[in-house]
Structure formats: C-alpha cells, structure tokens
C-alpha cells in the first residue's frame, strides 16, 4: 500500500491534479548545466511517495478551496524543500542508497551532491516568487525549523542523556514543521477560518511526528531491501530515538548491546524489552491526535483521506 493507494481509495485527488505537480517538478529541475539537471532529476524522479504535495492538496480541498491551480506551487515547493534536504541528509549520513537506487553523493560524489541540493533549493526560491508573502514566510519558517532541528539532532549524536521530550522536539522541527507547513499553508490558501487553519497546522505537526517515529523504528527493525535505504544507520551514528532511549532507561546492559556492531542482536534486544512496542505506542498516540484535529474540519473526501494518512503513517512497512 502506498500513499497514492490510500488517497485513491477516497477519490480525493485526481490523476490530472497529481500530473500538474509532476510537470512542475520536472520543470523545476532543468538547469543549463547538464550534470545538475541529471543529478536533480535522478532524485526528483526516483519514486518518492509525494506525501507532502498530497497533504497540501488534501488540506486545500478539505476546506473547499475553489481553484486547485492556486495550491500547486505550494505543493511543488514543499516537495522541493523535502528533496533538497534529502540530498544534503544523504551526504551527512554517508548514505549510498535512497528509494532503492544510489544516492546523488554515491553516484556523483559529495561536491556534486552538495551543489545539487543547493540547486534544488534555489529553484524553490525562484518558484516562491509567485506566492503571496504569508506563504513565503511560512515556507521560510519551516526551512529554518528543518535546518535547526537537523543541527540539534547532529549536536546530540551519541548523547544517551537526551530526554524523550528533547527527541520529540527535534522531530517536531526536522519533520513535523514541513508536514505542518503543507497543511497549514494550504488551509490559508483555501481561505479557512483561523480555527480551521490552526487545526490543519496541528494535524500536520502530529502526523509528521508519528511519521518520523515510525521511520526511526523501521530503521531498527527493517531490512535495506524493504526500505530501499541503509538500515541501522541511526544506531551506528549514535542518533537516538524513542526505542533506544526507552531501553537505556530500563536496562543496565542497553548501552553495550546498542553500541555493538551486531544490529540484529540490538533489534532482538529492543523487541524483547518492549522498546519497539513502546515507540509505536507513542506514534499511535500522535496519529490519534492528528485525527482528532480533523474534527474541526468539514466532512469531505479529502478530510477522510487525511484521516487515512494518519493510520498509514504508523502502519506503513516502508
Ligand atoms: C531525514 O532524516 C532528514 C531530514 C528530515 C531533514 C534534513 C535537513 C537538512 C539536511 C537541512 C538542510 C535543509 C534544506 C532545506 C536544504 P533521517 O536521516 O532520519 O531520514 P532518512 O532515514 O530518510 O535518511
Ligand atoms: Mg538520513
């Protein structure tokens, strides 16, 4: 099951609407320098879920937005922010695999990857010139949260003293803020009331948090074939998440098991003391909170699809 399947079931977004996003994304990655075009296209067309653009389209429709063309630049912008951040993230994480294919850094080296991330980010700036200033401000704020959240996560590498609240705050910034921008800004464009726009903002924040917690547990329990990206990389880097934090608080031997290179053993250990179940319980609470926010919105197909995405965020296997 993919994001598109989930949204399709409700018939909330048409193929034609998705095609508008795809066309604009393709256009956005054309450079005068062939290598930049190829590298940017490599990541943009690598089969991403397009979750963030669909969140923007659904939030716009949930509030009865009158003209879908109005929300397309936002939908494209959020995918460009996400893509640029992934290109840079794969450099800093030293990852060679993303979406089942080689990363830009693995294929063309760090310098080209750095420039490709910059290029995608600059194409985003150019695209933003058509947006109104409230939306530009919102996108800029979420980019700031993203880079600050990522910086905080990096500064906390190896810090086993980080609290659960500290982890959740970082997740809110590095993932929640962009999800929240998708839904909140789309709600603003649709002309929603302040309460409706606030509900969409909180929905996005909770959904993003649930989604990232699930991402972090998959890193511990899945295989790289299943995920199309390297696994156990967080533990290797000393990047904390809920399950290891839970284990460290409850078991004397956790630090040793989690720092050993045997990731299968680490997974068995985390499963056996209930750390993965615990993390997923918290993810389910965030998904539930996200769904609660939707009660402030009109009941439409798009609203139902947003609720389904909250279930999908935690049920997904990749
Ligand atoms: C993925 O995390 C990374 C992020 C959610 C944010 C990364 C942000 C930056 C690199 C800052 C630069 C930002 C811009 C806009 C250019 P992860 O490593 O946990 O996920 P993964 O398992 O998919 O790699
Ligand atoms: Mg990464």
If you had to describe this structure to a student in words, what would you say it looks like?
- The protein has 17 helices and 2 strands.
- It has about 325 residues and is an all-alpha fold.
- The chain has a two-stranded antiparallel sheet with strand order 1-2.
- Helix 1 packs antiparallel against helix 17, helix 4 crosses helix 9 and helix 5 packs antiparallel against helix 7.
- It starts with a helix and ends with a helix.
- Bound molecules: farnesyl diphosphate and magnesium ion.
- Magnesium ion (MG) binds next to loops.
| Principal-axis shape | globular
Helical content stands at over 70%
Order of strands across the biggest sheet? 1-2
Strand content: under 5%
Structural class: mainly alpha
Radius of gyration: 19 Å
- Report the total helices: 17
Task: Say how many strands there are.
Answer: 2
Q: What about the largest sheet?
A: 2 strands, antiparallel
Could you spell the SSE succession in H and E letters? HHHHHEEHHHHHHHHHHHH
Low-confidence stretches: none
Ligand inventory reads: farnesyl diphosphate, magnesium ion
* Termini gap: 10 Å
Mean pLDDT: 95
Sum this structure up briefly.
The chain is 74% helix and 1% strand. The protein has 17 helices and 2 strands. The protein has helices at residues 3-9, 15-28, 34-44, 51-62, 72-92, 104-108, 110-128, 133-155, 164-189, 194-221, 224-227, 233-237, 242-250, 254-259, 263-272, 275-293, 301-315; strands at residues 97-98, 101-102.
